[in-house]
Amino acid sequence: RKYSSILGIETSCDDTGCALIDLNGKILSEALHSQNLIHLRNGGIIPDIAQDLHRRYIKPVVDKTLEKADLSMSDINAIAVTVEPGLPLSLAVGMKYAKHLARKYQKPIIPIHHMEAHALIARMDHDISFPFLTLLISGGHCLLAVAQDVNEFKLLGQSLDGAPGEVFDKAARRMKLRNIPELSQMSGGQAIETAAAKATNHDIFKFPLPLTETKDCNFSFNGFKSTALYHILKKEKEHNIEGDQVIPEVNDLCLAMLMGTTRHLLHRTQRAMEFCEINNLLPENKKQLVVSGGVACNNYIFKALSILCEEYDYKIYRPQPKLCTDNGLMIAWNGLEKWRKRIDIVTDLNQININPT
Ligand code: KG4
Ligand code: ZN
């Protein structure tokens, strides 16, 4: 054995990710195959296509990871793999391949919760101790939780309908941002952030704040989607827009939408902070907020959250952008965190399966 390490495999959505990390937490190698551009062309993720692509790329991505580190399966202590939540067809590919490797090379499997991995990866580059508050914002999820330990998360609230990234992606598509050359290769969220930076007047578009009356930490995003659609249709009519044309106020609309969603995220995070205070969930002298998930790449949202954190005496952390979006390293890291605590190291492969919900 050349090196003791953990292999991480991620296939919960549309990225085939793999990484190797040694038992001291040193990154040995990473590989990622992203389906983003294919799904952009199709106007959204088609589960069958996502599965086909995972099937096609899982072996090359894992092989490449091992090759880059100049290691073989015999150097690996355990295989960490995402088992929940995610698209059932996508999760199944990673699970099946992890089990195949585990059987062939006699390795234990460490099952990983995708959202927990989004939160914990912040601990790789930053000195963050348990417990901490976490806001996880992505294309499929939006939630607030207190991370109390590696495998102990207290859910404070979550989205009652869509997710912020999903709403950005759908609105971006409807605004035809792909037809603006500068934005054509970006995810919906990134395109909206970039367009919003060029806005001159956000006052012309109103986005009502949802759930203002409910005293919990839940979220709702579908209202932003329908309000965006309403504004787009109205402007398209006004300007007689047809075909591939984009409305002239597109930058202003992007900023108004970004501001609306940011206000909602802030409003609920503030409630979570107050909930933690009342229930003594965080130490008085060390209050920490971890923001992660693809939407955490957004600098406008992060800046707004930073101001809230200053107000409430929290330290704010977010992983570097490529670790906010889906990747294999966060799964390997979570595997290592579990390995160090000797939890969830499974040798009986019949005991583990995917749990998509
Ligand atoms: O975490 P992630 O890679 O996949 C899921 O688990 O969903 O997040 C992908 C989402 C996409 O919806 C994308 O539009 C969004 O993250 N995203 C952003 C930005 N970059 C990516 N949203 C807002 N601003 C960004 N800069
Ligand atoms: Zn994710």
TrEMBL record:
Subunit comment: Homodimer.
Family: Belongs to the KAE1 / TsaD family.
Record protein name field: N(6)-L-threonylcarbamoyladenine synthase
Domain Gcp-like: from-to ranges: 26-333
Entry's localization field: Mitochondrion
Recorded superkingdom: Eukaryota
Its job: Required for the formation of a threonylcarbamoyl group on adenosine at position 37 (t(6)A37) in mitochondrial tRNAs that read codons beginning with adenine. Probably involved in the transfer of the threonylcarbamoyl moiety of threonylcarbamoyl-AMP (TC-AMP) to the N6 group of A37. Involved in mitochondrial genome maintenance.
